Amino acid sequence: MLNLQIHHTQGRFILDVAFEAPGTGVTALFGPSGAGKTSVVNMVAGLVRPDSGRICVNGLCLFDSKLGIDLPPEKRRIGYVFQEGRLFPHLSVHSNLTYGMRRTPADLRFVDFDEVTSLLGIGHLLTRRPAGLSGGEKQRVAIGRALLTSPAMLLMDEPLASLDTARKAEVIPYIKKLAAHVSIPVLYVSHAPDEIRALAAHVVALENGGVTAEGSPKDLFSDERLSSPWSTGPMAVTSP
Ligand SMILES: Nc1ncnc2c1ncn2[C@@H]1O[C@H](COP(=O)(O)OP(=O)(O)OP(=O)(O)O)[C@@H](O)[C@H]1O
After folding, report:
1. Domain count, the chain
2. Which distant-in-sequence residues (6+ apart) come within 8 Å of 228 by Cβ?
3. Residue 123 is part of which domain span?
4. Element (H, E) at 82
5. TM spans, by residue (predicted)?
6. ipTM (interface predicted TM)
7. Ligand 1 centroid to 123 CA: how many Å?
């Protein structure tokens, strides 16, 4: 279970978010630009410290302002996948993948290298450098690198946003497969309902720094509360 309760003021923006999400599978953070999605993800990762609140993942408390707990990012065991893969350009795919793995103590490793490369279909790319990969392949390697740190949780901040429709369709089944395979929660930021429908079991809708709705993709995307102001353009919420 992911338990999150955050209060934070940044400039004129007030973030006041609380939700619970399943301890496995994909939970989507959904909302328009500026809703606070990346802020929430950065606070889970420990990159931004909330003014107050509590963030716990499957019993491990990452942050609790009342108890004075604030684990540094490297102690949180969080795998983070960004919009653009951010692979190390001078390292081979193999070295990119083993980078985080080698920094994880052997007794905390629960993810197997061969299993991950097979799950993500990247076994044939190991000797290549990132410059020789397609956008979809880069993102699959970035996901593999994050997963090979054996994280307690995976954060994915719009990991498909830089890909065209065909590449997105190529990567989605891999994310789906790995989320079903590993027993950790995946917090997945997106403003694409189709992506969320394909991947998520649970959706938390954010707007203006607060939670406006929560539930299954089916429930949420047929919910009239979400039909505005996103009823037109690329963010359109359509019935399943
Ligand atoms: N360091 C900061 N100081 C002041 N305001 C900030 C800071 N960081 C973020 N904000 C503001 O917080 C709000 C939420 O930003 P955030 O990036 O979390 O939104 P988002 O939902 O992830 O948006 P997007 O989908 O565009 O990435 C925005 O209004 C942003 O300008």
Report:
1. 1
2. none
3. 25-34+75-230
4. none
5. none
6. 0.94
7. 37
